[in-house]
Design brief:
Blueprint (H helix, E strand, L loop, with lengths): L2 E6 L5 H14 L5 E6 L24 H6 L2 E9 L2 E2 L1 H8 L2 H6 L6 E8 L6 H14 L3 E2 L8 H4 L9 E4 L10 H21 L1
Parallel strand pairs: 1-2, 1-3, 3-5, 5-6, 5-7
Antiparallel strand pairs: 3-4
Helix pairs in contact: 1-7
The protein binds flavin mononucleotide.
């Protein structure tokens, strides 16, 4: 069964919860399955190394996941209007995959979470698209035929799925945010099935 790689970084759980909704959407497409993976945090070389396997949650991504996936969805918290360093660090290590065209022609989407409503969701989503374009992915967002895109009072954008965690850092997506995250997963999986 072809997999859609749902690859994310999350420190406080918001992006992780959105990732699970994206994965649910992937699973709603007949014959498609989601492969949830994360990336380790980055730290100065003087800091003690993390264990090679996370204590909980999704396993760390491996190069084979990129090779094997039929499409991918990248998620990151917003950090000053941009993707977080751990995801960028992983992406910056993909020179070999870029050279061999591992991701060329594969559909891809993006998702994020912020504290504030206008805290840079769209710039973060766009920042994640840039390396995907260099890798030859076919970028897809969420079309306005998804009715909740026009009515959401929090996250969910045509650029990709999103969550507004607020100053209390509430990781739980709203109903609109969850529906739109599932729509993104379904869309990438549907495109992968058609392109494959
Ligand atoms: C260094 C740093 C920079 C951040 N920059 C922004 C920002 O530009 N805009 C914003 O709204 N939230 C910002 N945040 C808040 C996170 O994006 C927000 O808490 C997010 O929901 C965290 O996702 P997570 O729970 O998956 O880790 C920042 C947080 C940190 C630690």
């Amino acid at each position: 069964m072809p997999d859609i790689l749902v690859l994310y970084y999350s420190r406080n759980g918001s992006v992780a919860r959105l990732a699970r909704q994206v994965a649910r959407g992937v699973g709603e497409v007949p014959g498609m399955a989601a492969r949830l993976r994360t990336v380790p945090p980055v730290a100065p070389v003087t800091r003690v190394a993390e264990p090679p396997v996370p204590e909980s949650g999704a396993p760390y991504v491996e190069r084979a996941d990129l090779d094997e996936c039929a499409g991918l969805v990248l998620g990151s918290p917003t950090r000053f209007g941009n993707m977080a360093a751990p995801l960028k660090h992983f992406v910056d290590g993909l020179g070999a995959e870029w050279a061999s065209g591992t991701l060329v022609g594969k559909p891809a989407g993006v998702f994020t979470s912020t504290t504030s409503m206008h805290g840079g969701q769209e710039s973060t989503l766009l920042s994640m698209m840039l390396p995907l374009l260099h890798h030859g992915c076919v970028i897809a967002g969420i079309p306005f035929t998804e009715p909740r895109l026009a009515t959401t009072r929090s996250g969910g954008t045509p650029y990709g799925a999103s969550h507004v965690a607020g100053t209390g850092d509430d990781p739980e997506p709203s109903e609109d945010e969850a529906v739109l995250a599932r729509a993104l997963g379904r869309r990438i999986a549907t495109l992968a099935a058609r392109l494959g």
